[in-house]
């Protein structure tokens, strides 16, 4: 039996729409598993697709979207706590929690907890690493315990630094014990989209977003006090549009460079999901090209709620 449905997939796979349709059927509520959708005012670049949460005039309840202001450095350990709070709230209402997202790190944290929550930041180490280049940080990442790498990631410099920090702490404190995380029964469904269709949808969606407010969204963030140098933290779209607004690249270079970067990111997402399978997570894959009713029927006939 399960008490949580998980819907994961790479960017542009249609997982949000599927999650919302499913929530309508099972009296569910969505919990976002996205590292950027927690920020207010970052709608287009993070792909919140908020219109999909409204089905025939009925709003699908959702959690962990628009909970922090830009500029705040939200982290995985806060997400762990926020997820548990949202999950418990939904269960108390006797609704079905549905975790939807493309961040493998956030999904794994929600399902089994991040065992390194109790390890405090090492300010001295962080001050030392602040002078390191990205390449030097990645060299240090390459040297950490391989088993630790399987539970963390280096997609951003802050995450790589945190991994280095944890690795150093564990080596210096060999008697440290992992905290206990509440057991959650779950069923994972993945949206499997072909490489060709994924590339087509990513390119089309990027064009639509650039023509429908993405640049203006980033302009507003900067006008409201978010410095250009902080944009990299919030992901590819904000990084590349920031470069464009500073006139470091032209519109063509923006589209081509960002398009390539998103394709590469989607491949990394799939790599993470395949690695989850190797680690023992059972993912039931659904064909993205199947009709919505077929995908829903597959989920509804598989999922066994408490």
TrEMBL record:
Highest classification ranks of the organism: Bacteria, Pseudomonadati, Bacteroidota, Flavobacteriia, Flavobacteriales
Family label: Belongs to the IPP transferase family.
The EC number(s) this enzyme carries: 2.5.1.75
Residues the record marks as site: Interaction with substrate tRNA: 103, 126
Species assigned in the record: Putridiphycobacter roseus
Self-association state and partner proteins as the record states: Monomer.
Function, as annotated: Catalyzes the transfer of a dimethylallyl group onto the adenine at position 37 in tRNAs that read codons beginning with uridine, leading to the formation of N6-(dimethylallyl)adenosine (i(6)A).
Protein name (record): tRNA dimethylallyltransferase
Nucleotide-binding listed as a keyword: yes
Annotated catalysed reactions: adenosine(37) in tRNA + dimethylallyl diphosphate = N(6)-dimethylallyladenosine(37) in tRNA + diphosphate
Ligand binding (ATP): 9-16
HAMAP family from the UniProt entry: IPP_trans
Region feature Interaction with substrate tRNA, mapped onto this chain: 34-37
Pfam family, one: IPPT
SUPFAM superfamilies the record matches: P-loop containing nucleoside triphosphate hydrolases (SSF52540)
Cofactor names: Mg(2+)
UniProt keyword terms in alphabetical order: ATP-binding, Magnesium, Nucleotide-binding, Transferase, tRNA processing
A single GO molecular function term of this UniProt record: tRNA dimethylallyltransferase activity
PANTHER family named in the record: TRNA DIMETHYLALLYLTRANSFERASE (PTHR11088:SF60)
InterPro entries to which the protein is assigned, alphabetical: Dimethylallyltransferase (IPR039657), IPT (IPR018022), P-loop_NTPase (IPR027417)
One GO biological process term: tRNA modification
Annotated positions binding substrate: 11-16
């Amino acid at each position: 039996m399960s008490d949580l449905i998980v819907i994961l997939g790479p960017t542009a796979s249609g997982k949000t729409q599927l999650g919302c349709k499913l929530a309508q059927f099972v009296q569910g509520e969505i919990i976002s598993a996205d590292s950027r959708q927690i920020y207010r005012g970052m709608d287009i670049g993070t792909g919140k697709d908020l219109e999909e949460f409204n089905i025939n005039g009925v709003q699908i309840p959702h959690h962990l979207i628009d909970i922090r202001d830009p500029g705040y450095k939200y982290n995985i350990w806060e997400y762990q706590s926020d997820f548990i709070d949202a999950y418990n709230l939904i269960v108390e209402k006797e609704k079905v929690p549905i975790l939807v997202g493309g961040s493998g790190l956030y999904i794994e944290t929600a399902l089994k907890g991040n065992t390194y929550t109790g390890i405090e930041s090492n300010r001295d180490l962080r001050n030392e690493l602040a002078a390191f280049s990205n390449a030097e940080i990645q060299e240090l990442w390459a040297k950490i315990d391989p088993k630790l790498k399987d539970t963390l990631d280096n997609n951003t410099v802050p995450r790589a630094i945190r991994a280095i920090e944890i690795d150093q702490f564990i080596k210096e404190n060999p008697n440290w014990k992992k905290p206990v995380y509440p057991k959650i029964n779950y069923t994972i469904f993945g949206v499997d989209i072909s490489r060709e269709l994924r590339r087509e949808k990513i390119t089309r969606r990027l064009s639509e977003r650039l023509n429908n407010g993405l640049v203006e969204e980033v302009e507003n963030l900067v006008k409201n006090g978010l410095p250009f140098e902080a944009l990299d933290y919030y992901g590819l779209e904000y990084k590349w549009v920031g470069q464009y607004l500073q006139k470091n690249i032209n519109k063509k270079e923006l589209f081509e460079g960002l398009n390539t970067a998103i394709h590469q990111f989607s491949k990394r997402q799939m790599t993470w999901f395949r690695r989850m399978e190797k680690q023992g997570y059972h993912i039931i894959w659904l064909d993205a090209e199947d009709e919505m009713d077929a995908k829903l029927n597959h989920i509804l006939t598989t999922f066994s709620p408490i």
